[in-house]
Design a protein that fits this description.
Strand content of chain A: over 45%
Radius of gyration of chain B: 24 Å
Largest interface: A-B, 72 and 70 residues
Low-confidence stretches of chain A: 86-99
Mean pLDDT of chain B: 91
Largest sheet of chain A: 8 strands, antiparallel, barrel
Helix content of chain A: under 10%
Radius of gyration of chain A: 23 Å
Number of helices of chain A: 0
Low-confidence stretches of chain B: 474-503
Number of helices of chain B: 18
Distance between the termini of chain A: 53 Å
Structural class of chain B: alpha+beta
Structural class of chain A: mainly beta
Oligomer: heterodimer
Number of strands of chain B: 23
Largest sheet of chain B: 8 strands, antiparallel
Order of helices and strands of chain A: EEEEEEEEEEEEEEEE
Chain lengths: 168, 503
């Protein structure tokens, strides 16, 4: 018997799988399913759940840090984070208070419009990012003083990367 | 006919052109940047030439390297595709100067239409209606004064523009100066030219364009319209033909205007005349694209004409094999552009590896894809993954087919796609009613989010069985951990059974 815990959209789900003859018995909360599954090429799984055929696709995201699994079912995709029962996976890192700014898309830093020590007001443009020929302006969410700049013009930054730190 | 053609592009359009060449018995040469070494177009061509590092400025935009590659490999023609150098008159001139045929219009035509301001002037002379605007002087001060006179809202546009780059909508006078600044910077980056002009904003317009083709013998034919109003960030994401807006009378008048626009520049080869059409059926010349259009497949689907092969034949000196009287629209075609981007967060582009790509198939479904499973989407190029086109008996049938095809399209990996967004858009009553104005997405889809309902149990079951398999393969296959690629065992264990199905 194997117990899984999955996180989807910040909600946790427990799934219990037990070998049962040719297939498996799967228990989710108080719901029991008889399941057969066959893995095909290209991430496809042919599932038969209580006699109902369902074609799903699955892949793991390339970034090993996030450990995400993506499941496709009937045109919807779900991002599933398996949570190890022994080692609780660290939660999303929360941003330090005081208003820090992360890259909202991956891209290249085109221009830095402020320097450390500058006082900015809410809405002031701070950084111009460019990706795939699109320009994105990163503006101050609140008023504050720039305490740190973690990128330089020409840098390639990833989505979620901390670019600028502010104190109010 | 040409013996060997170089395709100066990448992605789906390079694949599209390479296929046409192969079908015509023309040998092919692809060019590629360092990150594209495994891209589909590289493997489809007979020969492939590395032309530089990933940034387009150092590879796909290098005229010298591309012309040199064509000469070295004995090419007699170059197809530029769209984007990159397709509307660069200097490139066309360099190609011709090297004794190689350029598959596209004459450099003088490209130059005349490349400047939106020059094109406006030409169209006014040719009697084609243009949008009220200002283009006499390009300084901030002159533009500011002109904007006050024209009245807001107003559009700031790049003279060398295209694809919405260097373009800003300005609602109020105090927004004008920052808009001019950022439009200038974007135009400089995208086109190497920061000249701007103004146009009065036409409220809730339809964006409707006409495909035209002309040969060296003075034959000029339009291949009807494409309705391209569904846009985000001024870039089209859904196109269809026929337009739900046009009746036969308006279609004929716009077709005539499109031919007049083309004739004004003695147009040869395939091109597109774009119009804005307001709610009262007034239409205005917007610009002319002197190249193959991204959305050309829907015209091919309803007319049965292969535009790429037609371009090649025209360049080789052949006359058009059809006339205005013999071409017709049959059925209804729709194209959806599948992008690596997140519609829930303002369509921000996504990059990363595509683990699984499964294209929809069926009668009347066409996929022009530039990626396959295992490819990586980089931040260097457009986030267009594929174009999904369908041909139905009528508009309702085409929409139904498109919804199903979008539903069946699987793309999984690090990147988010707009597939679910496109499907919901096609299902929207306003789209089905044909209310396709350029503000459609803000109007009807602005608050779109991925579904937040609890996942069906099938998703959890699939995840559990997939995890189980991944664990069992980790303990039995030593190489998996070493490779650090959790996807690889799936390939190895093709057909591996989780339990046993009835077979």
């Amino acid at each position: 018997m194997v117990d899984f815990c999955f996180e989807i959209d910040a909600e946790q789900f427990r799934v219990n799988v037990e070998a049962d003859g040719d297939g498996y018995e799967v228990i989710i909360s108080d719901r029991r399913y008889q399941v057969n599954g066959q893995l095909q090429a290209n991430g496809q799984i042919n599932l038969i759940i209580d006699g109902q055929r369902q074609r799903v696709y699955t892949a793991t995201a390339n970034n090993p840090a996030t450990n995400q699994r993506i499941v496709w079912l009937a045109g919807e995709t779900w991002t599933v984070i398996p949570i190890d029962a022994q080692a609780q996976r660290p939660r999303h890192t929360t941003q330090p208070s005081g208003g820090s700014l992360t890259a909202t898309m991956p891209g290249q830093v085109r221009a830095l419009l402020v320097a450390v020590g500058d006082v900015v007001t809410s809405g002031d443009p701070l950084i111009i990012l460019e990706a795939m020929k699109m320009e994105l302006r990163i503006s101050a969410p609140d008023a504050g003083t720039v305490t740190k700049i973690n990128c330089a013009v020409g840098d390639v930054v990833m989505r979620g990367q901390l670019l600028i730190e502010l104190v109010e | 006919m040409f013996t060997k053609t170089l395709v100066a592009n990448r992605g789906e359009i390079a694949v599209r052109i390479l296929r046409a060449c192969r079908e015509m018995g023309i040998a092919t040469v692809a060019v590629y940047s360092e990150v594209d070494v495994n891209a589909p177009h590289v493997w489809l061509a007979d020969e492939a030439v590395l032309i530089g590092p990933a940034p387009a400025r150092e590879s796909y935009l290098c005229i010298d390297k591309i012309v040199a590659a064509a000469q070295r490999h004995g090419c007699t023609a170059i197809h530029p595709g769209y984007g990159f150098l397709a509307e660069n008159a200097a490139f066309a001139e360099a190609v011709i100067a090297a004794g190689i045929a350029f598959i596209g219009p004459d450099p003088a035509t490209i130059r005349a239409m490349g400047s939106k301001t020059a094109a406006r002037r030409l169209m006014i002379e040719a009697g084609v209606p243009v949008i009220p605007g200002y283009q006499e002087e390009g300084t901030d001060e002159a533009l500011f004064a002109a904007a006050q006179k024209l009245g807001f809202p107003i559009l700031v546009k790049a003279a060398a523009g295209g694809g919405g780059k260097g373009m800003r909508t300005v609602e109020r006078a105090d927004e004008l100066r920052p808009a001019l600044q950022s439009a200038r910077r974007e135009a400089q980056n995208a086109f190497g030219d920061d000249q701007l002009f103004l146009e009065k904003l036409i409220q809730q317009p339809h964006h409707i364009e006409f495909q035209i083709v002309g040969d060296r013998f003075g034959n000029l034919v339009h291949l009807f319209e494409r309705e391209c109003s569904i846009q985000r960030r001024h870039q089209k994401i859904i196109e269809e033909t026929p337009s739900p807006l046009l009746d036969d009378d308006l279609r004929q008048r716009m077709g005539t205007a499109a031919l007049a626009a083309a004739r004004a520049v003695d147009y040869v080869n395939a091109g597109t005349v774009e119009f804005l059409v307001d709610g009262d059926g007034n239409f205005y010349f917007l610009e002319m694209n002197t190249r193959l259009q991204v959305e050309h497949p829907i015209t091919e689907l309803v007319t049965g004409i292969d535009l790429v092969k037609t371009q090649i034949a025209i360049t080789a000196g052949q006359p058009l094999p059809f006339t205005q009287a013999t071409v017709q629209q049959r059925g209804h075609a729709i194209e959806c552009r599948v992008y690596a981007e997140d519609p829930a967060t303002g369509f921000l582009p996504a990059i990363g590896k595509l683990q699984v790509v499964q294209e929809p198939v069926g009668p009347g479904i066409r996929v022009d894809a530039g990626v396959v499973s295992g490819d990586t989407v980089s931040l260097h190029y457009d986030p267009l993954l594929a174009k999904l086109s369908v041909l139905g008996m009528d508009r309702a049938d085409a929409i139904a087919k498109m919804k199903q095809a979008l539903q069946d399209y699987v793309i999984l990996g690090d990147v988010v796609t707009n597939l679910a967004f496109l499907r919901d858009l096609c299902a929207h009553p306003a789209f089905q009613a044909g209310r396709t104005t350029t503000d459609f997405i803000e109007q009807y889809m602005g608050n779109w989010q991925t579904p937040t309902a609890a996942p069906p149990d099938s998703v959890l079951i699939a995840a559990a069985l997939a995890e189980m398999l991944a664990r069992s393969t980790r303990t039995t296959t030593q190489t998996v951990a070493e490779m650090g690629d959790p996807y690889s065992p799936w390939q190895h264990l093709n057909g591996f059974r989780l339990g046993v199905t009835s077979g």
